[in-house]
Specification:
The structure is a homodimer. Chain A has 11 helices and 10 strands. By secondary structure, the first copy, chain A, is α/β, with parallel strands linked by helices. Chain A folds into 2 domains: 14-125, Tetrapyrrole methylase, N-terminal domain (Cobalt-precorrin-4 Transmethylase, domain 1), CATH 3.40.1010; 128-271, Methyltransferase, Cobalt-precorrin-4 Transmethylase, Domain 2 (2-Layer Sandwich), CATH 3.30.950. In chain A, the strands form 2 sheets. The first copy, chain A, has a 5-stranded parallel sheet with strand order 3-2-4-1-5, with helices on both faces. A 5-stranded mixed sheet of chain A has the order 6-7-10-8-9, sandwiched between helices. In chain A, helix 6 (166-172) packs across helix 7 (185-194) and helix 7 (185-194) packs antiparallel against helix 8 (224-231). Chain A is globular, with a radius of gyration of 21 Å. Chains A and B meet through helix 1, helix 4, strand 5, helix 5 and strand 6 of A and helix 1, helix 4, strand 5, helix 5 and strand 6 of B. Strand 6 of chain A pairs antiparallel with strand 6 of chain B, so a sheet runs across the interface.
Chain lengths: 282, 282
Amino acid sequence: MRTAKLPSFEGGSVWLVGAGPGDPGLLTLHALNGLSQADVVLYDALVDESILALAGPQAACVYAGKRSGDGATQSEITKRMIAFARAGKRVLRLKGGDPFVFGRGGEEALALVSAGIPFRIVPGITAGIGGLAYAGIPATHRDINHVVSFVTGHMAGGDVPDGVNWRALGEASPVIVIYMGLKHIGRLADEIVAAGRSPDEAVAIISNATTERQFVLETTLARARLDAAASGIPGPALIVVGDAVRLRPGLDWLSAALHGRKLDADPLGNARSRKRRAASVP
Amino acid sequence: MRTAKLPSFEGGSVWLVGAGPGDPGLLTLHALNGLSQADVVLYDALVDESILALAGPQAACVYAGKRSGDGATQSEITKRMIAFARAGKRVLRLKGGDPFVFGRGGEEALALVSAGIPFRIVPGITAGIGGLAYAGIPATHRDINHVVSFVTGHMAGGDVPDGVNWRALGEASPVIVIYMGLKHIGRLADEIVAAGRSPDEAVAIISNATTERQFVLETTLARARLDAAASGIPGPALIVVGDAVRLRPGLDWLSAALHGRKLDADPLGNARSRKRRAASVP
């Protein structure tokens, strides 16, 4: 296999690397190149084991997950990262998804600047795009939306963020993707209905996106809280609100490949309704 | 180097693959695996040559770029894709960025369903996240935004999309990332100011993100049109609006590595203003 020319990982530096949503095939070449050279891999709770298995034999993999609501641990992670780099190690800080999408990568990078440690950002596939794609839901589709918005449903303290203007978001964004919102799904759905969206609007909840444990629940804004509770769907999960979810019967390529799901070429019924209109012309 | 277990590419099927923003190191393992097996690579105008160079020696690379405003060519691309697959080829449809983020991947996939051709979606790093990261601009940052929105500034017909509620978007999303909006930048900036955002708000225009030709222009909403024209910055370009741009002096790791740019650990001046407040206590 041909491969790209990739940079060498200097001792005493840190790479902040996005691991993508879970499937190791969604790692970037930069991420794999970094894992093969790293002396230390400081990894988050959301990183799949199959990805850690790609680190070189020399790498020490160190768990650096945060406990919800524990602000102290973020500064501990930063301190460890800096200590390893000061000891001359190649330090790979591995985060689920993308380090700059609700990943606190900016904060960690600024701490490195403060400590005078060189760093590189390696973007990853964010779950709100790649995780949706594995569920057969496009983040954008020409018939549906020119805007897609990503919002976090969960703060470091465990609560819903209070700075979000849900009314404006509901008006602005036909498709809304909520990260880490499962715990508060009822409240989030209520906010979006209060913004003027129909209670019958389609919602998908995607758990463990792109992994073998991927589970997708289709529901509506009105039923989301009860359906989520009844299904026992586990976190971490993405919530998608909008008509993009209605494309799933056409685009669920993964279920077609794994379970022989028959796909519908006209999931929004556009061609069928054109035919009906044509048929009703006298 | 260890590598992940990756799927084999079946003849007669199509993979819709995101090539990422430009840097070949941002390809996924699935994308490289697909390129190494494909018989035909149907590629878009936005795909960098260094990425095509990674296709296997057996692959025929066929240009399938669209001319702006030419609706016919989209259906020609689809027809060619289907014809190659029906001839039993492994067809890799390669798109800049991510196929489901303003990439018309959903439309092409539904055409494949209609023709009874199996397909796989391979997500890519979208420029609005990965391109920003290479310019030192995080799509989200805890002090700045819990919402980030992506919007297209350019329709198939070449005009600004008319379905966008700019007022609501301006209220909902502290950081707005506009794809393909350079041609209409003055009008887009006016819409965002009319939504109530300050004319002095920071804007970055990122051209040829993540490639060797990457060029970043920092400006404001009020000055964006004139500064873009004066700089002669070429498309394709991303436009980022919001305080995330103000983090660039702290997070521009690429200029630090290539040109020795000295980074500022406190780009928003938070620590400095805390010190000032503390100093003013009698």
